[in-house]
UniProtKB/TrEMBL annotation:
Source species: Alloalcanivorax venustensis ISO4
This protein's record includes keyword DNA-binding: yes
Superkingdom assignment: Bacteria
Repressor listed as a keyword: no
Family designation: Belongs to the type-I restriction system S methylase family.
Pfam families: Methylase_S (PF01420)
InterPro entries for the chain: Restrct_endonuc_typeI_TRD (IPR000055), Restrct_endonuc_typeI_TRD_sf (IPR044946), Type-I_RS_S_subunit (IPR052021)
Annotated Type I restriction modification DNA specificity domain residues: 40-96, 131-305
Designated name of the protein: Protein HsdS2
């Protein structure tokens, strides 16, 4: 659909523009062709090799199941209102993510302070200016263990019910997603007992999206992970939440990108992770920094869940309204208003 501010502009041959007959609502037609099912159907009329194209002449032959104009307009208004809510929710998520990024930058360079007392003295370090009483320490010195989860084939050990094994897709920035979970037999788990993960371990993705990290929650204590990096912070020295936060920060991402190996297949190995320079406040301040950022992260997770629900609801609504499965009533006063407009 051409927005008002582009009225009168031309279009390229790869993006043909069409005039719509008066009997159709442009907004309704836009929603109609935006349906995933309709889009997939267009693949059948695409032609060419490599980058396929749909010829305008082929589009002209497409049949559209259309209700009366007034019903089209009401359907378009309903779907557009949902689009507005989705867009506002997306903008809210983006604002919170910007806030989180700004908070992390501020807290990892100036600190949170304790008991309302901000830091007043700073010093230069290999990673830039930090509070005077902070240190920069290699991760290996702050962990009792940095290793790799099960790296051999696990296909033969898969079980309907057994010990959960976390994969890359289960590890998000700061949280574990317990969907699409695989399980391995108890026997295979016991054979790899030294690779079991524990509550408070930090799991870090090695390949694909290297550096993405999350803390192992209580419910996955004693489970396994597949080819992920496992860091076990020393109690009393390094807070697991703070470590995951640090690796997921822009600072951590720059380290991962700068230290990765493997060319096209991005790969972070244990040897590299051991050298990660941890910006180290006191244990209490580590926990304070984590709590501040985590409060924003929790809001983001909550609103992202709402966003996914809205997108799913919009998809179902489109399927019902744009296929005629559910009809929309147009009342007399609405019809009169439309005719007088």
């Amino acid at each position: 659909m051409i927005p008002k501010h582009l009225d009168g502009f031309g279009s390229s041959q790869d993006i043909p523009a069409f005039d719509i007959y008066d009997g159709f609502s442009v907004s309704w037609l836009f929603q109609y062709i935006s349906r995933y099912e309709y889009y997939k159907g267009l693949e059948k009329i695409a032609s060419g090799t490599g980058s396929k194209r749909i010829q305008p002449s082929s589009l002209f032959k497409e049949r559209v199941l259309a209700p009366p104009l007034l019903e089209q307009q009401k359907i378009a208004a309903i779907l557009s209102s949902v689009d507005d809510v989705i867009e506002k929710t997306r903008a809210q998520i983006d604002k919170l993510k910007d806030l989180k990024a700004g908070l992390m930058q501020e807290l990892l360079t100036k600190g949170a302070g304790l008991d309302g007392a901000p830091h007043t003295a700073f010093k230069n370090s290999p990673v830039g200016q930090i509070p005077d009483d902070w240190e920069v320490v290699p991760l290996v010195d702050l962990c009792s263990k940095i290793s790799v989860g099960i790296a051999s084939s696990t296909t033969h050990a898969y079980a309907q019910k057994g010990v959960p094994i976390l994969r890359n897709q289960n590890i998000l920035e700061g949280s574990i997603r317990a969907t699409d979970m695989l399980h391995i037999s108890q026997q295979f788990s016991d054979e790899n007992a030294s690779k079991k993960i524990r509550e408070g371990d930090v799991l870090t993705v090695r390949t694909g999206y290297p550096g993405v990290s999350a803390i192992v929650p209580k419910e996955f204590d004693g489970c396994h992970s597949f080819t992920t990096l496992i860091s076990r912070p020393k109690k009393g020295e390094l807070d697991p939440g703070y470590l995951a936060l640090l690796i997921n920060s822009d600072y951590g991402k720059k380290f991962v990108v700068g230290g990765q190996a493997g060319g096209a297949q991005q790969n972070l190995n244990a040897t590299t992770l051991k050298t990660f320079p941890v910006i180290l406040p006191s244990l209490d301040e580590q926990a304070e920094i984590f709590d501040i950022v985590n409060s924003v992260s929790s809001k983001i997770v909550c609103i992202e869940k709402k966003y996914r629900s809205l997108v799913s609801a919009k998809k179902a609504l489109m399927q019902d309204l744009l296929t005629g499965k559910v009809r929309v009533n147009v009342y007399k006063d609405e019809a009169a208003a439309a005719l007088s407009a």
